[in-house]
Structures
1.
Amino acid sequence: MQNAQEVVDEEVARRTFAGHAVPEDLKPAFDRHRANLVQLAMSLETAGKDSNTIRNLVGDLMKTYEDDLLVLIEARL
């Protein structure tokens, strides 16, 4: 079973934000969001959830965040 940090790292790596880099001024918010995902994943892991369940939840949350971030990035173009 993968640990929570590995699951979040893999899900974050899968997200490319449609080829856009995260703007420097948004990186602190992105990093906070990622840290929150790690804490959530660790709590789920402690609660006995398997890595696939954690991966699905983290992936869904990343997709939501990706959509919001893309709106901000595209508004700047």
2.
Amino acid sequence: MELVAEEQMSRDQYVAQSHDDLLAPCQSEAFVNCLGTTEAQCTRQVNQLVETCSAALPAILTADNFNDSAVGYASCVFDGLQEAFGKSSEEIGHCENQAGMR
């Protein structure tokens, strides 16, 4: 997903569009087993992080702020998962590899 110069998107639109992508790892049995959790716990955690992390997004995303905003948002969710499940970024990366996500 990327915005061109004239386009803009509200924070709510972006959060809604990216939500399925953020939940996808929770639907992988290999990923949740590697994390030592369940799909339900993973989904709950991601939903909680989406709520928290999306508050830092600008109200309107434009071509000028989109990339930095999207990267910051994804990092916030990723860091939150690490903390919630007591895993390092390397361990989460390993779980993504196990699940064929990288």
3.
Amino acid sequence: MKKLVAVLFGLLVVATGLVAATTWAVTSVRRYNSDSYGYSWTEIGVKYDVQHPYLNYYITYRTGGGGAYGAHVLTGVTIIPDPNGAETIVTIDGYHKVVSSAGWPYV
């Protein structure tokens, strides 16, 4: 029984050391797109492990927006989340779409 307790305690110490060794950083990824009708932008926030940024990360927020140029009218903005980012679809004049997307890993 004492051996089992010692082994479990040792595993706990090792696991705690591995968790404590993780250094986290935060960043944001922004992407834009535009044409003669208007523009679209998408942004995501990412918290990532500095040593393993593409394997150990979390998307903290997803946002987006856009607008219309000149006499064109903005008729809708849709933000579609996906597991590694987001996509923003801006509808102008009821039919024209301007799309932007941002994702992680950013390469």
4.
Amino acid sequence: MNPLLETIERVFSSGTLTMQDAMVINQWLWQTPMNDALYQALDKLLQGIESGYIAVLGT
């Protein structure tokens, strides 16, 4: 698994998105080629944030 997917899965599993996680995700987004698995993980992350399942810390 690539570092971006690992970070997204860790955030989803923990239920919290920290500022550090957001910075890591942002950095890897620019370096990682997009594929279906990544699109699905990002969609899952966004849905988790919008639904309140994932708490966003440090904002």
